[in-house]
C-alpha cells in the first residue's frame, strides 16, 4: 500500500514536471545583460549566438565546451562571424555538468557585473538549469529561453517512449539536484 502511494505521488509529480516542460514558452522580447548557453547540442549554441547577434545582450558565455573543441569549430558549426567571438563570446571549458555550468556561470557573471542573464538550453533541461543557477546566483535575474529540438515532440511527450525516458531521466536529475541543494542549505 505504501509503495503504491509513493509510486502514485512520484508519477503524478513527474507528469506535472513533463507538462511544465512542454509548456515553457520563448519570451516575446528576450533581453538581458548577457547570455549563458549550456552546451549539449548545436541548436542551443546557434540560438544563443543568434540572440547575441540580434543585440539581445552584450556578451555570451558558452558553458561546458569540450576541451578539444576549438573556437573555429564552433564558428563553422554555427555559421557565426569570427569578430563576434573576438569581442563578445567567452568559452567555459571547466564545467562538466549542470552544477559545474552554474558554478562557472556565477564566477563569470560576478566578474562582469551582470545583473540579468538569458539562460539558453533545451526546454527539458531548463528546470534543472534554473534551479542550479538560481542557487549559485540568487541576486541575478535569470530569464529562461527554451530551445526545442525539431525531433523531440514535447507537447505529446506521453505518446513517445523515448521522450518519456528522456523526461524521466531529467526529472530524476532535477529531483536529485533539489535534494542536494536542500541538504547543502541544511548542513553547515
Describe this structure in words.
The chain has a domain of 118 residues: 3-Layer(aba) Sandwich (Rossmann fold). It has 188 residues and is an alpha/beta fold. α5 crosses α6. β4, α6 and β5 form a beta-alpha-beta unit. A five-stranded parallel sheet has the order 3-2-1-4-5, sandwiched between helices.
Give the CATH superfamily of the domain at 32-149: HUPs
Structural class: alpha/beta
The CATH topology of the domain at 32-149: Rossmann fold
* Percent range for β-strand residues: 5-15%
Instruction: Output the number of helix runs.
Output: 7
Provide the low-confidence segments as ranges: none
User: Describe the biggest sheet?
Assistant: 5 strands, parallel
Global shape = globular
Give the integer mean of the pLDDT values.
Answer: 93
Please list the strands of the largest sheet in the order they lie side by side.
Answer: 3-2-1-4-5
Rounded to the nearest angstrom, the distance between the terminal CA atoms is: 37 Å
Known CATH architecture of the domain at 32-149: 3-Layer(aba) Sandwich
Topology (SSEs and partners):
Layout: H1 2-22, E1 34-38, H2 42-53, E2 59-63, H3 71-78, H4 82-88, E3 89-92, H5 98-112, E4 116-122, H6 126-136, E5 141-147, H7 161-186
Parallel strand pairs: 1-2, 1-4, 2-3, 4-5
Helix pairs in contact: 5-6, 6-7
